[in-house]
Amino acid sequence: MSDSDFMASSRDFIREAIAEDIHAGRFDGRLQTRFPPEPNGYLHIGHAKAIGLNFDVAAEYNGICNLRFDDTNPLKEEQEFVDAQLADIRWLGYEPANVYYASDYFVQLYEWAIELIEKGRAYVDDLSQEEIRAYRGTLTQPGSESPYRNRSVEENLDLFRRMKEGEFPDGAKVLRAKIDMGSPNINLRDPVMYRIRHVEHQRTGNEWCIYPMYDWAHGQSDSIEGVTHSLCSLEYLNHRPLYDWYLDALDVYHPQQWEFARLHFTYTVTSKRRLLRLVQEGYVNGWDDPRMPTLAGQRRRGVPAKALRDLCDHVGVARTNSTVAIDLLEYYIRQELNRTANRVMGVLDPLPVVITNFPEGETEWLEAVNNPEDESAGSRHVPFSRNLLIERADFMEDPPRKFFRLAPGREVRLRWGYFIRCENVIKDARGNIVALHCAYDPETKGGYAPDGRKVRGTLHWVSADHAVPAEVRLYERLFKVENPYDVPEGQDFTANLTANSLSVQNSAQLEPSVQELAVGETVQFERKGYFCLDPDSDKERLVFNRAISLRDTWAKIQASTPRRKSGERG
RNA sequence: UGGGGGAUAGUUUAAUCGGCAGAACACCUGACUCUGGAUCAGGCAGUUGGGGUUCGAAUCCCUGUCCCCCAGCCA
């Protein structure tokens, strides 16, 4: 075994089991996985783990991974979700070897069901839904057998055929596997295989009015496709005996199911039901709202797929339920963006600065490095003029200690530009600061003073005469508490929603080079954070989403310093 | 409560199947810096309780505790 084989096999219990199987020649040494979402919603960051595991494992063992849409319940499924899920998987960086649909196997499944009936291992039950529930027993009490359980094979065959032909209304009958009503595993108490649903399926139209249940469809689909390792989440552990029972009863090719823990995050909900509510009740603007934990939302927000993959690698695969702190995802997002995102200067909340000793109407183009972390990213030129804009928060008339930015009489550096000194504060009639008059030192071009004097602060800025206006959307976490499900009596998770998780900055002014950005591209606005050009942008108006802020130690210092009352100041 | 799965710093994890509990995030210092970013150095902090076997236990045995999943004609 080579080093890399060893590494791969020892990474987690699933890879270990797979390595053993391959070594033992099980499945002829073949490896095939599948990612099997139901197209009833958008994929979210929790799915990234299952997607990555299935595709990565396949790649590691020279196998293949298919995408299979588990479309057995037409009530909930839509083509929109099929398309979105495929797009999201591709965005994550994976390409399915094949795209399959469980609905492609409806005929085979039907024939297999007849085979089970003929073997005396399945029967048509006339019990109502409520009766079936009552007959099933409870967690602690065994169930009891349906009075229809011992119908003849002929009668079952006839009834099942008529179910399929649409003779009975929804709910009138079901096909059940005949297993064991006394089993301690409730999944084995004669599970339903088919239910009657006179609804149109998004792919098979009105061809069918009986639809297979998950358990009946899943293992058989795996078998048909030749899946070797069927990897799913922990809640299916109790289903494995049924998965195996069907395959054994049919005596067909038998894949191996393995279960692993799902990925959860703090400050996040990922249940489809709740995500659907956020969308339907208008708490967010659609499935791809940048605040949503959906892959579509994260992509739109500017989160790099690599960050998600790195996080999954770190978390690994185990059977332990865990909730990852969202800070860890944020760390990987920053780490990746720091490496890859070009820098740009943009002022979100502008304060005019007049460079009193710079000639009116003149422009000087200064060289600015695109990415200090990546020399190959090169440089660009940014315009400098008499009329500049800086961030309002970068000036204080009466600065506290440790404030390194601009203040009356104080000198700072303009990023990639000159040192400037604040000489005058201009106010309106009400005393609001409306502009600053500063003098620049022509000797400090490039950011260094020939006399060796130093400044504490470096500010980002733009030339007001050249700046491009933009709308900037800032996002807070959607939920204000670590565990959104933790709510007071009588309330639901929406009680934990952050009040203003979206705030729009309409007055942002950016350096002109942003006009060359493509939609979906993420750049760093220096000192502010990473921002992604939104599809809402047009020629007239650029729209950016803040993917994430930069780490902000100054904010931390401010927060930890006991605030002085205004009366105590100065 | 029947059945099944699980428990290692605050969080997510590693420990080559009995041999020095090692990382990352978060947090705190400090250095450096033309981003209060990044980087670098350091610090804080852990084996679910009890008992046993052993020279030696996160790991094996016994016995508790706690958490998760299952009673859809959802997946």
Structural overview:
The protein is of the alpha/beta class. The strands form seven sheets. Strands 12-25-26-27-23-24-13 form a seven-stranded mixed beta sheet. β2, α4 and β3 form a beta-alpha-beta unit. α1 crosses α2 and α8 packs across α9. The longest helix is centred in the middle third of the chain and has 15 residues. The N terminus and C terminus are likely disordered. It binds one RNA strand of 75 nucleotides through α6, β6, α8, α12 and β11.
Give a quick summary of the entry.
This protein is an alpha/beta fold and about 575 residues long. The protein has a domain at about 30-260: HUPs (Rossmann fold, 3-Layer(aba) Sandwich).
CATH class label of the domain at 31-260: Alpha Beta
Going by CATH, the architecture of the domain at 31-260 would be 3-Layer(aba) Sandwich
Mean pLDDT level: 95
> How much is the radius of gyration in Å?
31 Å
Number of strands: 27
CATH topology of the domain at 31-260: Rossmann fold
Helix content: 25-40%
Content-based structural category: alpha/beta
- Note the main sheet: 7 strands, mixed
> Runs with pLDDT <50, length 5+?
1-9, 564-570
Distance between the termini: 72 Å
Fourth CATH level, the homologous superfamily of the domain at 31-260: HUPs
General shape: elongated
